[in-house]
Amino acid sequence: MHILLVASAFNSLTQRALVELTELGHSVAVEVTPDGAAVRAAVARYEPELVLAPMLKAAIPPDVCAARTCLVVHPGPPGDRGPASLDRAIQEGAAEWGVTVLQAEAEMDAGAVWASVGCAVPPVGKSDLYRGEISDAAMEAVLLAVDRVASGAYLPRPQTDAAVRPHIRARPAVTQDERRVDWAHDTTGTVLRKLRAADSRPGVLDELLGARWFLHGGHPEQRLRGEPGRLLATRAGAVCRATSDGAVWIPRLRARRTPGGPGTFALPAVTALGALLPDLPEVPARGADEDDWADIRYREQGAAGVLSFSIPGGAMSTDVCRRLLTAYRRACARPTSVLVLGGGRDVFSNGIDLKTIEAAADPAAESWANITAMNDLVEAVLTTTDRLVVAALGGNAGAGGVMLALAADEVWCRQGVVLNPHYRLMGLYGSEYWTYSLPRRVGTGTARRLTERAMPVGATEAMRLGLVDRLLMCGPRDFAADVRRLAARLAGTAAAQARVAAKKADLERREAVQPLSAYRDAELARMRATFSDPEAPYHALRAAFVRSRPSPGCGTA
Q: Which distant-in-sequence residues (6+ apart) come within 8 Å of 205 by Cβ?
């Protein structure tokens, strides 16, 4: 079919819909706009057989709905309506949820049901859930709905149907009064549900150290206790705050926007608080305790080590890169023959942390520090010759995050992962040894196409191109265990031992042709020129991106 995707943003689900529908042979175009006139123009331009809205905050114009089959993806089960479905599902503690593909109508979410797929709701934040279980259910429902439209024989089920009508429930937007945490009385479980229901947007508005902040993300603390509402400790940029019966870790804070002021964005809590933060102990995680929150963790299964990390949005700041490099070197000191990098359920990495850079006193200098730290990490992976390194992607990756994965000997990813192996949309040439790793994987011509077209690549195409070596057909909750099992099995094979034995000689041969330092120096020279030029598009694009404003000219990232 010829399909037009309309979306308010080119978000993860829109990208996944584009790549998976294309992989199935459909002709797919995308129009990213909240404007009804632009949707009409796109329909006239593309003349689609089907209009599909994976993520749309405004209604499709009625005249378009009358002329074309128009479907919308709603992140809720049949009968659920409103803009706050996931927020309320998480905050109310739902164990099961779902996604419904509906006929677009003037009344939001009231159209006939073309397909619906249920899913579990694990104890994770809204953005993680959306990119995981919700994304899987959405794509299953979308592909089923598209098949039904293509058949021409399926009649969608109206919501007046007896099976749907009893479940109709409008869910208005969640107010900050509903999200408010009562630190003196709310239990840890209640606090976590509120935080996780708002972890990406809009956050939970709260008062802390005499200022108003939006709190983003939450993890339980098992040991620390104190007066409810008080800050108890720090860890990896997060702050620990006491609840009525325990404590929670809050990774990020966003300053409340002042009237007429610029947009604000979430930062590591310690960074955001700055001089307001009292003298608190830095409490490290207990490495062997799986229930003790840590953004970087190492464990072993047989002769395989797994260095996992979970960084909000996959944005790897200078500090994160340096801490991860330290952990990587420690992992390489262990007597293992396979080392897995990653293995978590959500975003693998999106490269340097643009928000921390934007907040720095000198963004150009912080850009340089961040890209240098990222290069140091990638170099360590590329030059590991005493064991096999596997990059395991349970979630999406972009820019330098893709290149970090490609530095490994093998790349494993979960089916449904979307890769963006390019930098152009942020006005950057790119680094992290991409001019070495990407052509080595896919060839010079394909590397040029991927970086210049700047379009997402789905898991299946990535496998075909050579970006990925193994696809894991599992759900988000099973990915980590499957990776550990497969890595332990790989570590015990004779083939793995033979590959390890050949790695050092292979690297030496490549170094004799062109040393890794040459790739690094050439890339970083171009990056430094961009960072130091105040007129370079990168600076305006970065500012627009972190503040969720339209990008000035080079597209969105």
A: 176, 179, 180, 212, 213, 214, 215, 256
195 and 157 belong to one structural domain: no
CA 452 and chain centroid, separation: 22
Supply 106's token pair. 């003037």
Q: Are 545 and 355 in contact (CB under 8 A)?
A: no
**Residue 522 CB-density burial (10 A; 0-12 exposed, 13-18 middle, 19+ buried):** middle
Task: Give per-residue pLDDT as tens, 25-79.
Answer: 999 999 998 788 889 999 999 999 999 999 988 889 999 999 999 999 999 999 9
Kindly report the CATH number assigned to the domain that includes residue 322. 3.90.226.10
pTM reported for the whole predicted model: 0.95
Distance between CA atoms of residues 533 and 542, nearest Å: 14
Question: What residues make up the domain containing 356?
Answer: 296-475+499-545
- Beta bridge pairs of residue 340: 306, 390
Domain with 157 in it: what CATH number?
3.40.50.170
User: Could you tell me if 59 and 125 lie in one domain?
Assistant: yes
Total domain count, the chain: 3
Give residue for tokens 């150009």. Answer: 364
